Amino acid sequence: MNRTLSALAIGALALVSSNAAAQNVDMRFLDTGAGKDVKIWSDGYDGRVFAGQLIHEIRDDRSRDSLTGVYTTFCVDVHDFVTDRFKEYRVSNLTDVPDSHPMSDAAARAINDIYAFAGDVQLSDSVSDTFAAAFQIAVWEIAEDFDDRDGVASLDINSGSFKAKKTNGRRLSGDIVDYIDDLFAAIGDGARDQGLIALKSHRYQDQIIKVVPAPMTMAGFAGLGLAAARRRRRA
């Protein structure tokens, strides 16, 4: 079974653009997907965490446009933890999360841009652990440190409210950093809406899901690996 999106809600785009906050669903954590363990420092949590794909099951019998299914999600909340029991979440826009300090419109657009740039590779069952970890770290950095005035210049995984390193406290590997840099470079490209929805809880970890299908075009990611390799050779 393809765990990336086992169910797609046909009316989900209308749900997001109209009144997503009116819908509640039940969700539970099932497993991790591709990714790596890293060490983070933040206003919410310091310590070792898994950075990468999270597999969640949504049970939704309350709305016509049901979101019931299994989804690959990315965390947008370093202040709480996942739960393996069904708990109620509010279907929200990105500007409603993280619950402790919701993002600005500009930060939400930045996350939309990196989703578009990755071209759904980040949701694939075959994505590398390195890229999945880089994508998650990029989401955390945007959610925690994006400043509307400075834009991309405000993003630095080695300083600010959020920092990420290897589990031994050393700087992240060049592969991960190159991917993160390329994701950040895509911010501001004015990408189309990616159909992103936030699942929000006051007690458990807020998640991002994508519910609108998109072609696997690889977007700007098609030549990213080669570009990263070229940079490392020049270094």
Q: Can you tell me about this structure?
A:
The chain has one domain. Helix 3 crosses helix 4. It has a six-stranded antiparallel β-barrel. The chain is of the alpha+beta class. The protein is 26% helix and 24% strand.
Name its key features:
24% strand, disordered N terminus, 235 residues, 7 strands, six-stranded antiparallel beta barrel
Number of helices: 5
Question: How would a crystallographer describe the biggest sheet?
Answer: 6 strands, antiparallel, barrel
Structural class: alpha+beta
Helix content: 25-40%
| Whole-number total of structural domains | 1
Q: What fraction of residues sit in β-strands?
A: 15-25%
**Major sheet: order of its strands?**
1-2-3-7-6-4
Cα distance, first to last residue?
Answer: 41 Å
Shape: globular
List the helices and strands and how they pair.
Layout: H1 12-19, E1 24-41, E2 47-59, E3 69-75, E4 87-92, H2 105-118, H3 129-145, E5 163-165, H4 174-185, E6 196-200, E7 207-210, H5 224-234
Antiparallel strand pairs: 1-2, 1-4, 1-5, 2-3, 3-7, 4-6, 6-7
